[in-house]
Specification:
It is built from 17 helices and 21 strands. Helix 11 runs parallel beside helix 12 and helix 12 packs across helix 13. The strands form five sheets. The chain has an eight-stranded mixed barrel, surrounded by five helices. 31% of the residues are buried. It has 585 residues and is of the alpha/beta class.
Length: 585
């Protein structure tokens, strides 16, 4: 193959080269004027060929002259490319080895990458799993904390519940009361009236407001406020300079509850009763006593007129001890038939004849009489009042049977039954069983109930009273005018007589306001075709006023004080024999 040098017409180099591109390469070298070594790598016939082209330059005038003379023309000049040497190498094996090494290196690199990737994957996975576990544990704890909060805090007010508060009391008492603490039990006054008149939403709004105020007071005093249930709250605070005494905390609670609460269009004015007790060094209280003392003080505050606080003291301690004694002894006295019954006659105002005896429970504890107002109230609070009433009725029925046998005339008795007793569905059957066992005809019995029975359940009470009336038992509405008196109740309750409370005769005088009201009540009762019994007649003037109004029966110390069974039998026998012969008592 002949290689011509560009720019040199007719210049040829004798050159045997199977590849035509070598001449092109030399041409490019000559054209560019770059006479350096040119190397290239090509694949030819499945071989890798490495070729180095070394250009030949005219470096001297002698060389140029010689060449031009041989060519017969001045074709070359000093510095021109006059030809080239080509060096070829078979690089197939080298390339193959290089590729093998490269493949091996790539494999190692890939393996290393895989190892690193697997390690990073495991690390990342471990981190993700750990984060997931942490997140799950956090969610579990948050859910548990929320659950514990819901279980331990009141949903309406956000205050702690009774269980948490009692636990706190136990902790304080367990520590020996090294620091002085004040416990306040708070009961909202007439909360039911607010619910009934303004609605439960208003009642809830009041509870929330009171709860918030107590909570703020507890936080300021480093104490604890709780909602014990319904409208009952509790506050436990340590003695501090800000709260140095029970009086200071009691005054603060009463004042903050008195503050007005606004809900929708309602302005709610509330009050509370507060019972306070103290626990501290030198006072060995347990949790039960700590709470019981505050509860006893609360009881006194409510009975004292409400809207006030009361501190537990020695006087309340004595009353509490006596109350505890009566509470434990009364059920045993009822079971062991230790109660007695006194009888007070009811007199016909027109004829002066006794027409009935009212039975009154009496009880001596350790040979000392207990006031009926005391033990009957405790019986109502402890749930033994129905057994007390039935025990009294049984003794009264036995007395009536004895009086009938002694006088030969019909003797009627009346007996009180508490409104709480009418919560028992079988109350009518149990009353009829009492008189039946004694052998007393039901027509000789009058059951006296107070108006509070209407507050319990009018329909249920009427059903029981109607059942007794159907068997001949009379029904009297006792203490009319002192509780929930209204014409609606008079229309709803089935009864045969009205007993006007003794309070109407106190300070009564002819033509004064009490006399006018008393006369109208008698007129209304007689208009309803009911017998009227006037209680508490103690002098001739009161008797004259009662007679002037047209009342039917009278009862009081003017006629007779309550008599024991023997005296009452003698009273009935004497009146029957001396004054009325064989006429009915």
């Amino acid at each position: 193959m002949t290689v011509r040098v560009p720019g040199r017409p007719g210049a040829e180099l004798g050159y045997t080269e199977p590849l035509a591109h070598v001449a092109d390469t030399i041409d490019r070298i000559a054209a560019s004027g770059n006479a350096g070594i040119h190397e290239e790598l090509r694949v030819e016939d499945w071989r890798v060929v490495g070729r180095s082209i070394f250009p030949t330059l005219a470096t001297s005038e002698v060389c140029v002259t010689c060449h031009n003379r041989e060519l017969g023309s001045a074709r070359f000049a000093k510095g021109d490319v006059m030809g080239a040497f080509v060096v070829e190498s078979d690089l197939t094996g080298y390339v193959a080895r290089s590729l093998a090494y490269a493949g091996f290196a790539f494999g190692l690199l890939l393996l290393g990458y895989q190892i690193l990737a697997n390690r990073e994957y495991r690390r990342t996975r471990a981190i993700v799993e750990l984060e997931s576990q942490v997140q799950l544990e956090r969610q579990r704890r948050e859910a548990e904390a929320h659950s514990n909060f819901v279980l331990s805090h009141d949903s309406l007010t956000g205050l702690v519940r009774r269980s948490v508060f009692m636990e706190k009391l136990g902790d304080i008492c367990a520590e020996g009361c090294e620091k002085r603490f004040f416990l306040a039990l708070i009961d909202l006054d007439d909360f039911k009236t607010i619910n009934d008149t303004m609605g439960h939403d208003a009642g809830d709004a009041l509870l929330v407001a009171i709860g918030s105020r107590l909570q703020n007071l507890a936080i300021d005093a480093s104490g604890l406020a709780a909602r014990l249930g319904g409208d009952e709250f509790a506050l436990l605070v340590p003695k501090t300079e800000r709260i140095p005494s029970m009086r200071s905390i009691g005054t603060s609670i009463v004042d903050l509850v008195r503050r007005e609460v606004t809900h929708d269009s309602f302005s709610i004015q509330s009050s509370c009763s507060v019972g306070l007790s103290e626990c501290g060094p030198g006072q060995l209280h347990d949790r039960k006593s700590f709470l019981k003392y505050a509860d006893a003080a609360l009881y006194v505050a409510k009975n004292g007129g409400k809207d006030q606080y009361c501190e537990f003291d020695d006087g309340i301690r004595r009353d509490l001890n006596r109350r505890s004694l009566i509470t434990s002894a009364l059920p045993q006295a009822i079971r062991h038939n230790e109660l007695s019954v006194a009888f007070q006659p009811k007199i016909c105002l027109a004829s002066g004849l006794p027409v009935e005896f009212e039975s009154l429970a009496r009880w001596d504890l350790h040979s000392k009489p207990v006031s009926p107002g005391e033990f009957v109230k405790i019986a109502e609070e402890t749930g033994t009042v129905l057994e007390l009433d039935l025990a009294t009725l049984a003794k009264a029925a036995e007395f009536a049977v004895c009086a009938i046998n002694l006088t030969g005339t019909q003797v009627r008795i009346s007996s009180n039954v508490s409104a709480l007793g009418f919560r028992t569905p079988q109350i009518a059957d149990r009353i009829l069983d009492c008189v039946t066992k004694a052998g007393l005809p039901p027509r000789c019995l009058t059951i006296e109930v107070t108006e509070s029975v209407l507050v319990e359940n009018v329909a249920s009470a009427n059903e029981s009273l109607s059942s007794m009336r159907a068997n001949g038992v009379r029904v009297a509405l006792d203490d009319f005018g002192t509780g929930y008196s209204s014409l609606r109740y008079l229309q709803q309750l089935v009864f045969d007589e009205i007993k006007i409370d003794r309070s109407f005769l106190q300070d009564i005088a002819k033509n004064n306001e009490k006399h006018f009201l008393f006369a109208k009540i008698v007129e209304m009762a007689k208009g309803l075709n009911k017998e009227v019994v006037v209680e508490g007649i103690e002098n001739q003037a009161q008797l004259n006023l009662a007679v002037s109004t047209g009342a039917n029966l009278g009862q009081g110390y003017f006629f007779s004080k309550p008599l024991d069974q023997t005296a009452a039998l003698a009273y009935a026998q004497r009146l029957t024999r001396d004054r009325f012969g064989s006429q009915a008592v």
